[in-house]
Amino acid sequence: MSGPTQRLRLLYIVGSGRSGSTLLSRLLGAHPDIVSVGELLNYRQFFESAEERERYCSCGSALLECSYWKRVRELTRHACGEEFPDLKSKVGANFEAANRAVIEAVHKASGGRIVLDTSKRYDRLRMLRATRAFDISVIHLIRDPRAYGYSSLLTELRKGQGPDVLYRKLSRWQNKNLWLRAEAVGGTRYQQVRYEDLVRYPQATLSSILDNLHLDRVDDLISAANTAEQHEFSGNSGVFSQRALKLDLDRRYLTQLTSRQWRTATLMTLPGLLTFRYPLTRDEPCAPEYVR
C-alpha cells in the first residue's frame, strides 16, 4: 500500500494518434508488474457517459458493471470524496489530488507496480510532472508520418474533408513529434519506440522497454496478452476486441498514396524522417532500432 508521500510509478505514452498506443498498452499490460488503464485523461468523461454510450471495459464487461473498476471507483471515492474526479483540471492542487486518487486506486486494486497511461497529451504529462507525486517514465511512440497521414486521410475523407487534409495532418505530425523529442526528455526517463519496430520485432522492442523500466523480461508477452484479463476503458476498440492480437504492419500507404502525395509528404516531413530514421523511398526497408 502506498504511503501518503510515496511517489507512484507511472509509465506515460506520448505521441500522435494512430501510432499503435493501444497495441503497445495491451502488450505491456500483460506484464505482471504493469497495469494498463488506457487513456486516463478520459476517465471522468467515459464513466459518466458509460450507460448512455454503452461503453465497455476491455475485459468485455459493461464499463459500469466491471468489478475491477467498481473497486477503483470505491477506492477513489474514499480518497477524494467522489468516484469520478476531474483528471483534466487546470488547477494544480485539484489536478494533483484527483490524479493521485485515481492512480493510487488503480495501484491498490491491481497490485501492479507501474500504471500505464496512454493519454499521449504532452500538456497532461507536464502537469503530472509538476505535481512531484509520480515517478514517471515516458515512451515516445512514433509511426512513419506517411502511414499516419494516410490512415488519418481515410478517416477525414469519410467525414467529407478534401484530400489536402493529408498535408495538414503531416504538418501537425512533424511539429508535434520533433517538439516532443526536444521537450519530453527533460527531467523524465524517456525512450523512443517506433511502431514499425514493435510490429516487426515485438519481443526485442518490448524487452528493451522492460530493461529501461528495470523490470524482468517475459519470454512471450504476445501470448500473455492474448490470455491475460486486462481492464482498459479508453483506447482503440478494434484492438480491444481482438482475441488474438494482430501484429501485421499496415503497408497500404506504400501503394495507395499517389506519386505527388508521396513526394510532398516526404519533403514536408524530411526532418522528422531523418531524425527518426525512416526510409525516404517506398522500397527502402525500415532499419530496426531495437533488435538486440
Report on this structure:
The structure is a single chain. Helices cover 49% and strands 12% of the residues. The chain is α/β, with parallel strands linked by helices. The longest helix has 19 residues, at 92-110. The chain has a domain at 8-144 and 184-245: 3-Layer(aba) Sandwich (Rossmann fold). The two termini are 36 Å apart.
Compact summary:
With 292 residues, the protein is an alpha/beta fold.
Provide tags for this entry.
alpha/beta, 292 residues, 15 helices, 5-stranded parallel sheet, Rossmann fold, 12% strand, single chain, 5 strands
Write the topology of this structure.
Layout: E1 8-15, H1 21-28, E2 34-38, H2 43-48, H3 50-53, H4 67-80, H5 92-110, E3 114-120, H6 122-131, E4 134-142, H7 145-158, H8 165-183, E5 189-194, H9 195-200, H10 202-212, H11 221-227, H12 237-240, H13 252-256, H14 259-268, H15 270-275
Parallel strand pairs: 1-3, 1-4, 2-3, 4-5
Helix pairs in contact: 4-5, 5-6, 7-8, 8-14
